[in-house]
Amino acid sequence: MIVAIDVGLRRIGVAISLEGKIAIPSTPILRKNRNQAARDVSDMLKEKGAKNLVVGLPKGGSSEAEMERRIKHFISLLEFDGEICYQDESYSSVEASELVSNKRDGKFDSIAAMIILERFLNR
């Protein structure tokens, strides 16, 4: 199974692909702090039997280097021994906002993760 995450400050969007063909949004993870979120993501990866983790990274923009550093630090906190791949997440939030009207219920974050996973599967 392939799992994709979109790391945010309040929530971490989650999407899965069972056979590497179709991306499906899953339940997002609420983020109270970095360590709790890393534990919850690690537990979710274990529960789902993930072999690959796709992580969205923003490309371009003035804060690209800072965001990449923060996201890679967060990923270093995970207990996961599968393959980790990084995928450009540019404009995934814009695409997600076109598909979801309510950005506060968490579905938005997982739709963004689904878009990131679709990009990875289609490359």
Could you characterize what this model shows?
- Keywords: Cytoplasm, Hydrolase, Nuclease, Ribosome biogenesis.
- Belongs to the YqgF HJR family.
- It is found in: Cytoplasm.
- This protein has 123 residues and is α/β, with parallel strands linked by helices.
- It has one domain (2-122): Nucleotidyltransferase, domain 5.
- It contains four helices and five strands; from the N terminus they run βββαβαβαα.
- It has helices spanning 34-48, 64-76, 92-99, 107-122, and strands at residues 2-7, 11-17, 24-30, 52-57, 83-88.
- The protein has a five-stranded mixed beta sheet with strand order 3-2-1-4-5, with helices on both faces.
- A hairpin with a 3-residue loop joins strand 1 and strand 2 (11-17).
- Helix 3 packs across helix 4 (107-122).
- The longest helix is centred in the last third of the chain and has 16 residues, at 107-122.
- It is globular, with a radius of gyration of 13 Å.
- The mean pLDDT is 86.
Q: Any idea what the radius of gyration is?
A: 13 Å
The end-to-end distance, rounded to whole angstroms, is 17 Å
Low-confidence stretches: none
What is the annotated CATH architecture?
Answer: 2-Layer Sandwich
> Can you tell me the CATH superfamily?
YqgF/RNase H-like domain
Return the CATH topology. Nucleotidyltransferase, domain 5
Order of strands, main sheet, comes to 3-2-1-4-5
Name the helicity range. 40-55%
Number of helices, counting only DSSP H or I runs of 4 residues or more:
4
Tally of distinct domains: 1
General shape:
globular
What is the chains' assembly state?
A: single chain
The overall average pLDDT, rounded, is 86
Query: How large a portion of the residues is in β-strands, by DSSP E?
Result: 25-35%
> Quick one: biggest sheet?
5 strands, mixed
SSE sequence, one letter per element:
EEEHEHEHH
Instruction: Please report the first level of CATH classification, the CATH class.
Output: Alpha Beta
Class from secondary-structure proportions:
alpha/beta
Subcellular location: Cytoplasm
Pfam families: RuvX
Family: Belongs to the YqgF HJR family.
Protein name: Putative pre-16S rRNA nuclease
